[in-house]
Design a protein that fits this description.
The protein has 14 helices and ten strands. By secondary structure, the protein is an alpha/beta fold. The chain folds into two domains: about 220 residues, TIM Barrel, CATH 3.20.20.70; about 60 residues, no CATH class. An eight-stranded parallel barrel has the order 1-2-3-4-5-6-7-8, surrounded by five helices. A two-stranded antiparallel ribbon has the order 9-10. The chain is globular, with a radius of gyration of 19 Å.
Amino acid sequence: MLRTRFTERFGVEHPIVQGGMMWVGRAELVAAVANAGGLGFITALTQPTPDDLRREIERTRELTDKPFGVNVTILPSINPPPYEEYMKAIIESGVKIVETAGSNPEPFLPYYKDAGIKVLHKCTSVRHALKAERIGVDGVSIDGFECAGHPGEDDVPGLVLIPAAAKALEIPIIASGGIGDARGLVAALALGADGVNMGTRFMCTQESPVHQKVKEQIVAQGERDTQLIFRTMNNTARVADNEISRKVVEIEKAGGVFEDVRDLVAGARGRRVFEDGDLNAGIWTAGQVQGLIDDIPTCDELISRMVSEAEGLITDRLASFVR
C-alpha cells in the first residue's frame, strides 16, 4: 500500500485522483473510483442546478460509502452560474472534500473551512500554487503542459513543474497531466508529488459515462493526436484532434477571434460527442496520455493494477539500481 501525505490528509486508500471533468464527473464514475480506493470528484457544473447537484451527491452515496468530493470550476462568464448556491449545496450535503479550479477560490474558503471541508486547488504554475497555499488550501493539483483541458500559458511540462512545485510548497501536491499508469505514478512520487490526478485515463474506463466510441477513439489515438486551441486568445486548451479542433486552429492562424469560433466550441456540441458518440460534433478534451492508453478497464482494475505495478517498480526495478 502506498501511503503519502495526500492519502493521510484526505483520508483515501490510494494516492490516485479522478479530478473534475465536464460532462464526465458523474455518480457512476466517481463511486467506482471511490470503491477502488481512489478519490473521485463530481463535477458540480455538469449538474444544471444546485438542487441537481444535491441529487447527484445522494446518488453517489447510494453507490459508495467511501470518501468522494465535488469539483467547482470558477471561470469568467457573461452569465455566471450561481456559485454560492452550488457551494451551499455542497456544504449542506455533507461533502468533506472540494476540488477548486479556475479563478482564485479565496472568497469561498472560509465557508468550506467552517464546514470542515478540505480543499484541493488545481493550478498550472508554481506561482499560482504558492498563492493557493498562502490563502489556506489543503493541497494543490498541479497540471503540466501535457494535460487535457487548460494547461495555462507557461508551457511547462510535468518533468520540470512537479519538482519545482515540490521544492517550493509545504502542502501535499498532486501531479496531473500525462499520467495514465504505474510508471507515471512512480515517476510523480519520485519527483516530489504525493499522488496523481488522471482525467483522460479515467474517461477511458468502463464506468465512465461517455459514449463507447469516444473510449475506443482514445485507445486508437496516439500522443500526437491533440490540438491546442485558443492559443492566440491566451486561454490555451488541449483537446482531441478532430475536424472541429483543426478548423478552430486554422481560423486562429488566419487571425480569427473568439466570435469566429464561438459556435464551433460551444459546450452543447462537445456534450454531443460524449453522449452520442459523434466524434466530430464538437471539441472534446483529451490529453497526450492517449498514447499510453490501450484498454478500457474497470476503475477497480485500473487502480489495482497501477498500485500493484507501482509497488513492483519501487521494490524491484528501482531497487536493483542501488548497489
